[in-house]
Each structure stands twice: as C-alpha cells, then as structure tokens.
C-alpha cells in the first residue's frame, strides 16, 4: 500500500515536472523567436536607411532648393559699424519720460 502512495505521488510529480519543462521550453522558444524577429527588423530598417541615404546622394533628394538671387559685386554703400553703445528711439523716449517724472 505504501508503494502505491509513493508511486501515485511520483506520477503526479513527474507529470507536473514534464509540464513545467514543456512550459519553460515554449517560453524560451518564444523569447528567442522574438529576438530573431527583432534582429531581422533591425536589419530591414538599416537596409532601408542605407537605400535612403544612397538615393539622396545619387539623385539629390532632400537637399534644400536655393530660391532667390545672390548678391554679386561690390557693396553700393560702405556703412561703418557703430562705435560705443547704440541707443534706440524707445530707450531715448523712456529716459525723457523718466526725466519728466522726476522733474529734471
């Protein structure tokens, strides 16, 4: 009778162990398959990037088009750079308003 109980538990344990091994094998295969698919997709994307770069080099796609004319010749007027601090009309108006408020 004791042998039957041990044998019965042993069969249940063996079945559970077999199912666990199969589940681990399936999980490992899925993970390896996902890595394989990921590497394949990376290869496809890199190949597409290479083709895109090659098309831009060969056909000139993606380069900005130059619109408008370029200046040719000498400048018409030679304007010297301002020396010292340059004040604009808004700054001058603000100083006048401040002087008026302070009573100067």
Write the layout of secondary structure elements.
Elements: H1 2-59, H2 89-102
Describe the structure.
The chain is 69% helix and 0% strand. It is built from two helices and no strands. It has helices at residues 2-59, 89-102. The model has no long low-confidence stretch (mean pLDDT 81).
Mean pLDDT: 81
β-strand amount: under 5%
Number of helices: 2
Total number of strands? 0
Major beta sheet, specifics?
Answer: none
Q: How far apart lie the N and C ends?
A: 119 Å
Shape: elongated
Gyration radius, in Å: 41 Å
Low-confidence runs: none
How would you classify the helix and strand content by structural class?
mainly alpha
What portion of residues is helical?
55-70%
Summarize the structure.
The chain is mainly α and 104 residues long. 69% of the residues lie in helices and 0% in strands.
Q: Which terms summarize this structure?
A:
elongated, mainly alpha, 104 residues, 2 helices
